[in-house]
Amino acid sequence: MSDFNRNIGQRLYQYRTAAGFSQEDFAAALNVNISTYKNYESHKVRLPLETAAAAAEILGVSIDKIVKGDMKIETQIKDLKESVSEEIKRVENEKKPKNMVFDRVQLERVRSACDTLERCLDRKNK
Q1: How far is the C-alpha of 100 from the C-alpha of 32, rounded, in Å?
Q2: Shared-domain flag, residues 78 and 96
Q3: DSSP state, 46?
């Protein structure tokens, strides 16, 4: 699949999680099978225009934001920090981590980088 379709899947994920929907709940709201929805996000299947329009309506964003993207960098950084924090908690709670891609130190570095980016953006916006 093209980068264009991959980006649509990534944006769909970003807006869905920002709105607080699980994949299951969002698939149900779109009236599609969960495996089909997961394929949209993982860019294995093209997102039909009708589904993109329905997703935009449910998420309260324009279809352009899903198709073209328009998420502010501040929102992206916030989302990344939240994901990293959740992953750190998961790593801390596991006694014997399985298939761990990142260790706690690496995750802390990512979170620190996000903090630095936020400070830079705050200075730029003042």
Answers
A1: 31
A2: yes
A3: P
